[in-house]
Design brief:
Oligomer: single chain
Shape: globular
Strand content: 15-25%
Radius of gyration: 23 Å
Strand order of the largest sheet: 2-1-3-4-5-11
Number of strands: 14
Order of helices and strands: HHEHEHEHEEHEHEHEHEEHEEHEEH
Length: 356
């Protein structure tokens, strides 16, 4: 009798809705600083979001808000997403850092990921990629491909992340072509395709036959294609906009990181912290070489990428001097992470000065 009763209770437990229901899916949200386009910064983060959906399936519900300016609008959007019950919110833009921290104080139960941010809190983690590693590798390709020995660089803001990229690109460029120099145009905004295009045209008029950029659209690539010049794609493969102009693409890979963090929010293992991953961690990759790049150049860049993954190559190894002639680092030393994160100078070979 008792045996039958026990079996009945076990069966009831399995049949009861309270026991048969799957855990509610975790709600995850992203805030994008530009419109969602076919390629670029926002596209790469959205690919990461879609990788989360693919990996977790019905265990996750994702949402995003695009084209959110940094500042008051960002705070409003982040606050709305927290109030809507999202358990983890990704805010991938440097200017979202302070709004994210402010909202996080009011929603201690929500996890926030300040991507490219520098400040953590108990419920705010930071993450970034070592973009400069890909910049160095692309500089090698640009140094092999330039004929005018002038490269142009369209830059958003003179913040450390952008300076790291300009400097690493220049060091890579000059490692194979010591005569090459770099000219920079500052835009002081991340996404303005007409101005990005205008800056690219100006640089080409000044003799640049290879271009790089740290902005959010494909406008620089399209301008290079139009003028028969070459360019390094950033964030994602941009051969759709520049099928013959693209030298290679420095791509950002966010899917693995985002998936791990959403899983952690779901199972309760999420903790604040900081990740700065590069080639070795699979977060940065140089790929998608264009049709004008000789096989030997592709092989050289990929070999250096393997060296970087194995810690045999550091983009900022001495001797280094800035573009005012000041010695920065002697031979045999490399910049520390702290020095790279606080970078406020331009390396020898960059012909443009920092804006005041």
């Amino acid at each position: 009798m008792y045996k039958n009763l026990a079996a009945t209770l076990v069966a009831a437990c399995f049949l009861s809705p309270a026991f048969s229901q799957s855990p509610a899916p975790v709600k995850a949200a992203w805030v994008y600083v530009t419109p969602l386009t076919d390629a670029g910064w926002t596209q790469q983060h959205d690919q990461g979001r879609r990788a989360v959906e693919k990996a977790l399936g019905s265990q996750v519900n994702t949402t995003y808000v695009e084209n959110v300016p940094e500042g008051a609008d960002a705070e409003r959007v982040i606050r709305d997403l927290a109030a809507q019950g999202n358990q983890i919110i990704f805010t991938p833009s440097f200017g979202y850092m302070e709004p994210t921290l402010k909202v996080a104080r009011d929603f201690p139960g929500v996890k926030f990921e300040s991507v490219t941010g520098l400040k953590q809190a108990p419920n705010v983690a930071t993450a970034n990629a070592r973009y400069y590693e890909g910049r160095y590798l692309s500089g090698i390709a640009a140094g092999r491909m330039t004929r005018s020995n002038v490269a142009g660089y369209v830059a958003g803001f003179p913040i450390p992340e952008v300076l790291q990229g300009i400097n690493a690109f220049t060091v890579g460029l000059r490692s194979v072509n010591p005569k090459a120099t770099v000219k920079v145009i500052w835009l002081n905004e991340w996404f303005n395709p007409p101005r990005e295009r205008e800056a690219a045209m100006t640089l080409m008029n000044q003799g640049a036959d290879v271009l790089a950029f740290h902005t959010g659209s494909t406008a620089v690539m399209a301008a290079a294609e139009e003028r028969g010049k070459l360019a390094v794609a950033y964030h994602s493969d941009m051969r759709g906009a520049a099928p013959t102009a693209q030298i290679a693409a420095v791509t950002h890979q966010w899917g693995d990181y985002y998936t791990r963090r959403v899983k952690a929010a779901q199972d309760g293992s999420w903790r604040s912290g900081n990740l700065w991953g590069g080639v070795r961690e699979g977060m940065i990759r140089v790929e998608a070489f264009g049709p004008k790049v000789p096989q030997r150049v592709q092989e050289e860049v990929l070999a250096r990428q393997k060296d970087m993954a194995a810690a045999r190559l550091h983009p900022f190894a001495g001797p280094l001097a800035d573009n005012t002639g000041r010695a920065l680092l002697p031979r045999g030393q490399t910049l520390s992470d702290a020095q790279i994160l606080q970078m406020n100078w331009l390396v020898d070979g960059v012909q443009t000065r920092l804006p005041h």
